[in-house]
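Quick one - inputs below.
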Amino acid sequence: MFDKITLIGIGLIGSSIARAVKLKDLAKTIAITTRKSETLEEARALGLGDIYTLDAAEAVAGADLVILCTPVGAYEEVMKQIGGALAPGAILSDVGSVKGFVLKVMKPYVAEGVHLIPGHPIAGTEHSGPSAGFADLFVGRWCILTPEKSADPVAVDRLTSFWGALGSNVECMDANHHDLTLAITSHVPHLIAYNIVGTVSDLEADTQSEVIKFSASGFRDFTRIAASDPIMWRDVFLTNRDAVLEMLGRFLEDLSRLQRAVRVGDGPAMQELFTRTRAIRRSIITAGQETAAPDFGRPHGTTGNAIVQPEDVTPFAVREHGGGEDA
Amino acid sequence: MFDKITLIGIGLIGSSIARAVKLKDLAKTIAITTRKSETLEEARALGLGDIYTLDAAEAVAGADLVILCTPVGAYEEVMKQIGGALAPGAILSDVGSVKGFVLKVMKPYVAEGVHLIPGHPIAGTEHSGPSAGFADLFVGRWCILTPEKSADPVAVDRLTSFWGALGSNVECMDANHHDLTLAITSHVPHLIAYNIVGTVSDLEADTQSEVIKFSASGFRDFTRIAASDPIMWRDVFLTNRDAVLEMLGRFLEDLSRLQRAVRVGDGPAMQELFTRTRAIRRSIITAGQETAAPDFGRPHGTTGNAIVQPEDVTPFAVREHGGGEDA
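Output:
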């Protein structure tokens, strides 16, 4: 499909693209470039590419597809290095979680004849780094492209086919529309998850260890999201501020109303909301974006991978099975 | 271990207890009683017990262990029915998510010689009803008991052994301490999840369908919690108001600070928080309360149960794999 694909940055997303491209034989050559030499060596040890270099300009030379896979805060520095080295006719894309900012920061460095088509695969896990990637990451997931109106339709089709070959469904939309949609589907949920986990990490040590013990009651779901890559997420909030603050404002208005319902004991209002929210999850499962298995299909007891018995988190007198000797 | 165990209510938790008791042969007889005859018939069809009756007083007669497994809002009504029918020496427990209220509402109906030991297994899924239960639900999970200081230690030990036999680790604590701890580990996370899913369900239809499509970017995690049983959760917020409002207050203070960091673009503050929160998840995994598998071990692409391709949620021009014919 391509002669040479260059991946700039090789974390969870970049390394997943590399693996999928190899598996599906979508390029003759994969070039990988990173800022840090340790990361490059990790990618080399994993056998993710064919060319490894710390020189981004060298990496993009002759490439017909170049994908930025770094946190968006690094894009300007990357563009300064590669802007003059991109081959005419090359497609230049990325995988960043914000798109308006990306378009603004990349465009000044893109020469005539290079096709800038920003992208955002809606896929990931809470793990990061080259070893966290896997070839199936994009299967059944959406990938959003945000080409400008003036973009070459042939280049857009090529990139669409590329993501299709990785297993994704592709949709084109305006960059600002993307940023507002992702603010509510992704950025505000991350902000809230980071916040509540932060609230817990501020608790006194003994309370905190109880929160960890009893986290299966709901809290632990939030910690997965709040374990996502800190630099990437810092950059998201630095570059999609307005949309995030708008959606956070709506969330806070609704939370004030719910807080009041709790305070005055308005049972019917709560029950109405809690019933309505179930329907949203059903829609997500029907849309193929979520597993219908209970608890995300997490292993439970002996039916899955047995969850180890806690041994190291026992700040209180604990009555063990059949015992009671400490109580 | 017991002659006759009576389960009052047979939803996710009650039916999981019934299955585990049968599997491990912990009682000669399991009696099941429900308010609605449909639920009772469902339990009978599933073969969860030995005695099925709509008469709660009849169900508890001669039982040496009685466990309330209904939403806590129903406890007073249940106690009015069973208070006079409990056998002397019986252990009376429950599985409710709040404990101060439960102690207060149950105690007046408990005759001398009956051992009231409220309990709370920290286990569950977002599914509800008799068919949602499974025997392994409690394995490796904590169960909190909140006996009063005057409680008979032998009875507490018996109930501790019972939960141990179901696979749980048991801890005793004060009811009010339980309620404050669970407010932050469970009740506030649920409130926040319900709230953000509610915010989404208030969006215009076209935006909402986009949120559903792109939910894999974070939002869908919240929907699992927000799909939990509405009546149960209404009752939690009606009966643990003060602790919930206290912890929600802390969450909101922290969120104001984070909102300001986003507004002023304070990258270092965000990065510091987002790094700190990762450690909490690691602690939960180390404590055996969470799987270390990425994405909760959700199926991804072809490596797990294939996630179906979305077909019914395409309000926009969608470029399919290799195509582009609609765009």
